[in-house]
Automatic annotation (TrEMBL):
<keyword id="KW-0238">DNA-binding</keyword>
<dbReference type="InterPro" id="IPR000847">
    <property type="entry name" value="LysR_HTH_N"/>
</dbReference>
<protein>
    <submittedName>
        <fullName>LysR substrate-binding domain-containing protein</fullName>
    </submittedName>
</protein>
<feature type="domain" description="HTH lysR-type">
    <location>
        <begin position="1"/>
        <end position="58"/>
    </location>
</feature>
<keyword id="KW-0805">Transcription regulation</keyword>
<dbReference type="Pfam" id="PF00126">
    <property type="entry name" value="HTH_1"/>
</dbReference>
<dbReference type="InterPro" id="IPR036390">
    <property type="entry name" value="WH_DNA-bd_sf"/>
</dbReference>
<dbReference type="InterPro" id="IPR036388">
    <property type="entry name" value="WH-like_DNA-bd_sf"/>
</dbReference>
<dbReference type="Pfam" id="PF03466">
    <property type="entry name" value="LysR_substrate"/>
</dbReference>
<dbReference type="InterPro" id="IPR005119">
    <property type="entry name" value="LysR_subst-bd"/>
</dbReference>
<comment type="similarity">
    <text>Belongs to the LysR transcriptional regulatory family.</text>
</comment>
<keyword id="KW-0804">Transcription</keyword>
Length: 290
């Protein structure tokens, strides 16, 4: 059964005559007859009573007509939304790291929503590892992640640069002193977090393997524990600046190559790039958020 069969069926029911329906659709009569027979074969029942003046719907034909009209109406609406609309609409599903969602995304999403209010935005947070997996599986349309990706199935947009800093309650550290760091509890996100990976690699260059780890799932949890003096953590400066405004918190810049990272927006090369998605990536490429 094809959608065109339902279209022909509806026209025959409307005209109550196969010849008139064929003329209306610009089909040959035999083609219309074949499509009706195919529908009757599919449903294993008569849909029309034939008589010398034309055709009339059977009781089962009347049932099918009500559903056919609904199906065709929905398809017409879908076609209009997909092909004819020049205004972004529908849904846009995104992912982001916790720190990015808290500090950078509100401005981006607010700007986008102001321009395209008909788009329904959804956001899930996770580690870079989780977000890459979700993007590859097409569970989300794109995600903000940290570091180098270089995956053959993914496209990348460099969105903004971040500075990484150590954060600690005042008087916990006197500076980047590795003897002191050896004895600190390191507060980190769960495994797969890009910032955690960077922190551990940096400590590893000095032969430090954190003996005491406190693993948390949310940025609020990490910040709360740092504020309470339970340990130190590695955050982006944009997140640390918000924390330092009202709290007794110190920041220490990381040295060398571990100091700067790039946050990227990744997407699968083969996803359907809706108008809503295209407008979002155009906004990111414009550079207004750098």
């Amino acid at each position: 059964m094809k959608l065109e069969d339902l279209l022909v069926f509806r026209e025959v029911a409307k005209e109550a005559n196969i010849t008139k329906a064929a003329e209306s659709l610009n089909f040959v009569q035999s083609n219309v007859t074949a499509k009706i027979k195919r529908l009757e074969g599919h449903f294993e029942t008569k849909l029309f009573y034939r008589h010398k003046h034309g055709v009339n719907l059977t009781s089962t034909g009347k049932v099918l007509l009500s559903y056919a009209e609904q199906v065709l109406l929905l398809m017409e609406e879908a076609e209009k939304m997909i092909k004819d609309s020049h205004i972004p609409s529908g849904t846009l599903s995104l992912g982001a790291m916790e720190t990015t969602a808290a500090t950078r995304l509100p401005g981006i999403l607010s700007t986008y929503h102001d321009q395209y209010p008909q788009v329904e935005l959804s956001l899930q947070t996770g580690t870079t590892e989780e977000l890459i997996k979700a993007t590859l599986n097409r569970e989300i349309e794109g995600a903000f992640v940290g570091g180098k990706i270089n995956h053959p199935e993914l496209e990348e947009i460099d969105v903004f640069k971040e500075e990484l800093v150590l954060v600690a309650k005042k008087n916990i550290l006197s500076g980047i002193d590795f003897d002191q760091l050896k004895n600190q509890t390191i507060i980190v996100f769960k495994s797969g977090c890009f910032y955690r990976d960077t922190f551990e690699k940096w400590l590893g260059t000095k032969g430090i393997r954190a003996a005491k780890l406190m693993e948390l799932n949310t940025l609020d949890g990490v910040i709360g524990c740092v504020k309470a003096g339970l340990g130190i953590s590695l955050l982006t400066k944009s997140a640390a600046d918000q924390l330092s405004k009202h709290e007794d918190i110190q920041q220490f810049a990381l040295p060398g190559k571990y100091n700067k990272i790039t946050t990227k927006f990744i997407s699968h090369k083969d996803i359907v790039k809706t108008l809503a998605f295209s407008k979002f990536t155009s906004l990111l490429k414009s550079g207004v958020f750098n």
